[in-house]
Specification:
It is a single chain. This protein has 215 residues and is of the alpha+beta class. 38% of the residues lie in helices and 13% in strands. The chain is built from seven helices and four strands, in the order ααβααβαβαβα. Strands 1-2-4-3 form a four-stranded antiparallel sheet, with helices on both faces. Helix 3 runs antiparallel to helix 6. The longest helix has 19 residues.
């Protein structure tokens, strides 16, 4: 087997750009089950992510218990209602209430992603001055998983309207783990290359060049 790196041609580059464009934060799922082989493939792709010191601090908790799933969904509903209060008296209040912010009840697969803040792997390399690099490494693993899901026709929704300590308690994980994400995974009820929040008039995508600065 050759150790030479593969060559990625223009056709692949265009397909990769399309993959990035079609990666969506999915909130509407149909009920089809996701095959176990696909789930294993997604997690294997996630584990290929770069990590500080090669610490591999990501910890994936697959939620299989119906009562825990319902508790997470009810918790997210409560947090969403609380978050709506910040828009009270504004035109955005009703708009916010009209948005579907999670698919915790519908998605066939739920995964909570935690960061082990004290991993044995990596031996502390790269985190003396920026310990948050461990969490950034976990985010990169999630992005790998997200693209791998889209490649297989699967959707992923990142639920952020949760209180980390509450999720930590519900899932009974070690004290040294910090919640990074609660992910819904399944086949999307519909697909689009336009983010749902853009479709719904909440926020348009702005030019990338407006976020680039020089010094």
């Amino acid at each position: 087997m050759s150790d030479a790196p593969p060559l990625f041609y223009a056709e692949f580059a265009e397909q990769f750009t399309q993959l990035l464009r079609w990666r969506r934060d999915v909130r509407h799922f149909d009920r089809r089950a996701v095959g176990e082989a696909d789930m294993c493939a997604l997690l294997a792709c996630a584990a290929m992510a770069p990590s500080v010191g090669n610490a591999q601090p990501w910890r994936f908790v697959r939620v299989r218990t119906p009562d825990i799933r319902e508790a997470l969904a009810a918790h997210a509903d409560g947090q969403s209602a609380h978050a709506a209060e910040r828009y009270a008296g504004q035109a955005r209040y009703d708009h916010y209430l009209s948005l579907k912010l999670h698919g915790l009840r519908e998605a066939p697969e739920l995964i909570a992603v935690f960061c082990d803040e004290q991993p044995e792997a990596g031996h502390g390399l790269g985190i003396a001055t920026m310990p948050e690099m461990l969490r950034y490494s976990c985010v990169l693993a999630i992005h790998n998983l997200w693209l791998a899901a889209r490649l297989r026709g699967l959707g992923l929704g990142w639920v952020s309207i949760v209180d980390p300590p509450a999720v930590h308690a519900l899932l009974d994980v070690p004290a040294t783990w910090s919640l990074i994400a609660l992910l819904c995974i399944g086949y999307p009820a519909d697909t689009s290359d336009t983010p749902e929040l853009e479709q719904r008039g909440w926020q348009q995508r702005e030019p990338w060049a407006d976020r680039v600065f020089e010094r």
